[in-house]
Design goal:
The protein is of the alpha/beta class. It has 16 helices and 25 strands. Helix 3 runs antiparallel to helix 6 (about 180-195), helix 4 packs across helix 5 (about 120-140) and helix 8 (about 235-240) packs parallel to helix 9 (about 255-265).
């Protein structure tokens, strides 16, 4: 059986990045360039949105770094491709165990860099462990097939085989809102597929991103398997345009996704973009359960999730009951210090994001909506906000809020509410509370989304289940199996004059 010792040097690096946050020290987020950790170059500081002080520092990539990383990755790709799937799987399983071991350290880091409550950070690390275990399992399943060419006259006497080969160099561009798990998806699937990966970290979570990279290396991954750069959009654009890159996986806004596609040109792309998730509560629903679920999932991570509950459409006969129960459940959420284990809602990523939520709330109120609760902020912390009866053209209805706000609207006819959900430019995921199987099948067929959650809100995901959207929410599916398909290329072998089926036509 393959076995490679856990890297002591990388374990020390992982400790250095994560454990520094335990006593409130500023975390250093090194780059990994051409096979070596580095802190050289211009340094950017990350201000914690709740702590309102410097929490991490990261060296910013220069044009020469982009060239060095791309060139090194191309040279390194054959070594990772040659690593047996069993070896990749063992490394990924060890990385999953390390994620569990460092769970609390990661949660503290995420809370400091992003204001995400500890309970949400711990939940994210549980998902990291699951994701890496799933990537390991999928690595063991990579193979090919014997094609049925003898079923057609021109194929008689021949044999055709396929297998999935690594694409070569993958580029992972990750967002801030789930910096550990979304990087685990991209990096884990790419490594499982046998690629070397270039990671462009989000500026808001440089230390968390560096720690995930160190986690994989500490588990025994060869240093050739991953490179890490920090920087802004210009670094991402340069990496997207690099000829050495074969496939790009990007998670972020629709506007930035379009820019990625333009810079990438003729490269394979997986784009998981924005959302404006709707949840429908029908007249036969358990309203108390629906209100509780929407309260928990509408404000986790301060609503900064592409599938966070943003629009809730409630049948008019149950609207007032739902709104009252929902308001009570939201009022019970504990808002405050993300490092307090009891906190439900921490801060948003920065004050600009928080101000946007408050401004859109005020605009909706000026147009006739009722603010049932919230609508204020303290720095980057937004009080959980409910906007009832907003106009259909209010920004809280038509655009992605990506914040601690839920709009609640009544509906009368099921076909009309499906049409209202579909009026959005986005189509990532939806929720539906009903016991009516006919409605469930109708919604599954007619809602223009990549996924439907029944008797749950839009904000639920299993990491091994295909996840992705339609319309401006992107294309491709971000879970290990479909991602491995995107990160590999099918190679065909044609054997002329050789067949187990004989040669008689």
């Amino acid at each position: 059986m393959y076995h490679q010792a856990v890297s002591l040097e990388e374990r020390v690096m992982l400790d250095a990045i994560l454990r520094s946050s335990a006593d409130g020290a500023v975390a250093q987020a090194p780059a990994l360039i051409a096979g070596a950790w580095s802190n050289r170059g211009t340094t950017a500081e990350r201000f914690g949105p709740y702590l309102r002080g410097v929490v991490s520092r990261a060296p910013q990539a220069q044009p020469a770094d982009v060239s060095a990383v791309a060139s090194y990755a191309r040279r390194a790709a054959p070594a990772i491709a040659a690593l047996a799937p069993a070896a990749r799987a063992e490394i990924l399983d060890r990385a999953a165990h390390l994620a569990v071991e460092y769970r609390d350290d990661f949660a503290r880091m995420i809370a400091r860099e992003l204001g995400k409550p500890l309970k949400d950070g711990r939940g994210e690390l549980d998902r990291v462990a699951d994701t890496l275990h799933v990537c390991a399992a999928e690595a063991r399943q990579i193979g090919g097939e014997v094609l049925p060419v003898a079923g057609w006259s021109r194929g008689v006497g021949n044999t055709a085989l396929t297998y999935r080969a690594p694409a070569g160099v993958a580029l992972a561009i990750t967002p801030f809102n789930a910096p550990a798990n979304l990087l685990a998806h991209k990096l884990g699937a790419s490594f499982a597929a046998g690629n070397t990966t270039i990671v462009k970290a989000p500026p808001q979570a440089p230390a968390t991103s560096a720690a995930v990279v160190a986690l994989l290396l500490a588990a025994g991954a060869p240093v050739e398997s991953v490179q890490l750069l920090h920087g802004g959009g210009e670094v991402g654009a340069a990496l997207c345009a690099a000829r050495e890159v074969s496939v790009i996986s990007f998670t972020g806004s629709a506007a930035t996704g379009a820019a990625v596609a333009r810079a990438a040109g003729a490269k394979r792309l997986v784009l998981e973009l924005g959302g404006n998730a709707a949840t429908i509560v029908c007249e036969d629903a358990d309203v108390a359960e629906a209100a509780g679920i929407c309260a928990r999932t509408g404000y986790s991570n301060s609503g900064q999730s592409c599938i966070s509950v943003q629009r809730v459409y409630v049948h008019r006969s149950r609207f007032e009951e739902f709104l009252a129960r929902f308001t009570d459940a939201v009022a019970a959420l504990k808002v405050g210090d993300p490092l307090d284990p009891a906190t439900d809602v921490g801060s948003m990523v920065d004050e600009q994001a928080a101000d946007r939520v408050v401004t859109w709330t005020e605009q909706a109120a000026a147009a006739g909506a009722t603010v049932a609760i919230g609508g204020t902020r303290d720095g980057a912390t937004v009080a959980p906000t409910i906007v009832a009866h907003p106009p259909a053209d209010a920004r809280v209805v038509t655009e992605e809020v990506f914040g601690a706000l839920v709009a609640v609207l009544p509906y009368d006819d099921f076909a009309d509410v499906v049409a209202a959900c579909n009026a959005s430019d986005y189509g990532l995921q939806a929720g539906l509370f009903t016991r009516d199987i006919a409605r469930i099948l109708t919604a599954w067929r007619d809602l223009q989304v990549g996924g439907l959650v029944v008797n749950g809100s839009s904000n639920f995901r299993l990491d091994h289940v295909p996840f992705g959207g339609v319309k401006d929410s992107g294309f491709g599916r971000e879970s290990p199996r479909p991602m491995i398909e995107d990160y590999t290329v099918v190679k065909t072998l044609m054997l002329r004059g050789m067949s187990i089926w004989g040669t008689q036509s």
